Please model this.
Amino acid sequence: MADKRRSGVSTGMSDSKPTTKAETDEDFLSQAGVGVLLRGALLKLVEARSEDPIGFLAEHFSNLASETENSPVGGGDGEHHSNVLEQQQLSRALWHIGLAHHSQRSAFNSNTRVAYDLLMQNGSRRHGAGGVKGRVYTELLRGLCSEGGLSVTASAPLLQRIRCHDHEAVPFELFRQGVLTCAVFTDYIRKSQCLYAAVSSCPERAADRALCQAVLGTLQEALETTSAWTDVARYLEASVKISPCKLAQAMAEAQGPDGGGMGPTMDAQEFEDSAAKLFLARLEPVR
Model:
C-alpha cells in the first residue's frame, strides 16, 4: 500500500515538473530569456559602435541588473519611492541617449525614443496623456549638458530657451528636439574651444581680441547660412565647415599688413560665451 501511495505521489510530481524544469541547456536558456537579453545587448552595441565592446556590454548588463535590484517590491514611503524611481529612470534615460552620437541620426532617434518611454513610466501616464512631465524633461536636459562637459553658466542660457514649465506635458517631438539641441550645443562649444586654440599663440596667455573677433565674425557668417530651427545640427555643420583658408584670411585681415602688435586680449571664457550667443541667437524659444 505504502509503495503504491509513493508511486502515486511520484507519478503526480513527474506530471507537473516538465513545465518548470528545463531538460536541456537550450531549454534553460530559452526559459531564462537569455537569447532576448543578448540580442538586445548586441543591437545596442551595433548601434553605438563602441570602441570598447566589452566595457559597453558590461555597463549595459550592469544597468539591467541595477534596474532589477531596485524594482519595487511593495510598501514603503510612496513619495520617497517615486523620487528614487525618477532618479533611476533619469540615469537610465541619459545612458540610452548616450549610446549613439547625434550624427548617427537613426540610432540616436531610436535611443531617444527609448529614453522618452522610460520617463513616461514614472507618473506621466497617471497624470493624463500628453507626454513626459516638464520638470523631468528639464532635469534630463540639464543632465545632458553636464555629461557633455558644459558648466552651469554655459548651459543656463540654452536651458532657458528650450525648457518647459514643470507642469507641462512634453510630447515626443519636442522632447527629441530638445535632446538633439543639447547634444549639438555641447559639440558646438567644443568646436569653439578649438577655434580659440587656433588663434591663441600661447596656451598660458589670452588671445588677441582683434583675431578673436575676426574668427567670431567668420563663425557668425557660417551660422547665418542656415535656416533657424529646421535642423539644429546644421548649425554645428556650418561651424565645422569653416574653411582653414577663410579663417586664415580673416585672421590676416585682423592683424593688418604689419602683422599687428599685441593689443587688447580676449580670454577663452569670453570667446566661448560669445560663440554660444551666436548659436543661441539662432534658436527660437520653446515658449
